[in-house]
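Example 3.2
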Amino acid sequence: MTAIAHHREAPATAPLRILWVNPINQPGYDAPIADLIGRVKLPNAEVHVVSLAIPEPVALTNLEWRVFESSIWFPVTAIARYAATHGFDGYAIGCFYDTALDEAREISGDAVVCAPCQSALQIVSNLANRFSVVIGVEKWKVQMEDRIRHYGYHDRLASFRTIGRHVDEFQQDTAATEDAIRRAVREAVEIDKAEAVILGCTIEFGFYAQLQREFGVPIVDAVYACYKATEAAALAKVQFGWKPSRLYSMAPPGEDRLAASGLFAAPPPIGNTVIVPRA
């Protein structure tokens, strides 16, 4: 039997454009995240890693508190609009709270939008029946548990384990952070019977591989989970036309309403940019 040849899919090597936002207005993580992505991206992907342009005196290094997070909902959404109008195939929101994910998806045009929590959950669900999430401090637990429940994975959650560190402390003393994560992973696996562990912050980068070797269970890095989910979705969009639906609950405001609102009249709130080119 021969395949029906009414349509020819784009090759897996088709060019991709992906936008990653670090949703803070400090550029310090842009180059490290771009470096991580550069190690693992497809050769045909061009990736723009950006942080936010929010003027002083606002200075955000993290979104741990809801009051901090509240200040960046619209900027993250506005950059989704930028992705829609500037030819990006995928847009990644780099915070494990999945900040403004639904709003960004509404306005992203043909760009597929992903975020770390949902991406990590989708990946870990293929690898294990029970998982734990390693977080910085107890403060995060309720909000993250709400997201896990919202996505339908709560019955597979073995535990949260905290390491007693804030986001802006993770990369200051990486040896101490790794030791703290190691203790949390051990407790999750040995006490809570987790079969896999998610590192519940994008700034917990650089630790998964060593711990995975030590414990012999999947340790899901939030940056890689989110980036690879976005890249895969972007490629599926280009190859198969699987772009965001715009019916019913996914319908955005019409262009006339958007223009009348004036919401996107200003330039997109993009600050620093690091571009990872195609190979």
